[in-house]
Amino acid sequence: MQIEATSDAKKLIRARGGMLFVWMEAGMRGLRFLRTSTEPPEDALDWDRTETSEGFLVFTPPRMRKPRMLGLEVRGFLTKLRINALWNGCAFVV
Question: What is the CATH number of domain 2-93?
Fold first, then answer.
């Protein structure tokens, strides 16, 4: 899995501890979206770890299919900043 992150995303992930957790969440009509958090879930020790050359770690659930390219960008305003993940450049999983 290739990880492409904007400079703002890299800075935000590093500022929040250097770990990003990415998982899929079901949406309407069978669509699945990627969700992210810098806070580890309860079962974080079971998740697959991907090290980046950018100085942070990306974790995914063990049985989650991985994209060829995972894009990371910052969304939100001021105190509500969050990391948005893109599956091969798409906002939803295909």
Answer: 2.60.300
CA–CA separation, 90 vs 33, rounded Å? 9
Task: Give the single-character DSSP code of 29.
Answer: G
d(CA 56, CA 26): 27
Strands (E), the chain: 2-5, 19-26, 32-37, 48-51, 57-60, 69-75, 82-87, 92-93
Residue-wise pLDDT for 40-89, tens only, equals 999 999 999 999 998 999 999 999 999 999 999 999 987 889 999 999 98
Overall pTM surpassing 0.70 (yes/no): yes
CB 33, CB 23: distance < 8 Å: no
Degrees, nearest 5: CA angle 22-80-57: 30
